[in-house]
Design brief:
About 35% of the residues lie in helices and about 10% in strands. It contains 3 helices and 2 strands. Strands 1-2 form a two-stranded antiparallel sheet. The longest helix is centred in the last third of the chain and has 10 residues, at about 65-75. It is globular, with a radius of gyration of 12 Å.
């Protein structure tokens, strides 16, 4: 996986744990999770939402494979 920011094996990541394991801040990752336009940075990042009883988001959970795909979709320098 040359050029892909490696993520340590884990079942899922929260925004906080993914920010700690990658070069992206929690703020950028949150923007990506809620993004809808792939032409704007950051592009959408697939995540699952863990909700409370009233349907409010408690936290987002990101599959490492989805992060890897998202990272690979970013423009090259």
């Amino acid at each position: 996986m040359s050029g892909v920011a490696a993520v340590a094996p884990q079942l899922t990541y929260t925004l906080k744990s993914l920010a700690a394991a990658t070069p992206f801040s929690e703020k950028v990752l949150r923007q990506a999770v809620t993004a809808t336009d792939p032409a704007v940075f950051p592009p959408p990042l697939k995540a699952k939402a863990r909700l409370d009883a009233k349907g409010r988001v408690l936290q987002y959970l990101i599959d490492p494979a989805d992060y890897t795909d998202w990272f690979a979709s970013l423009p090259d320098a």
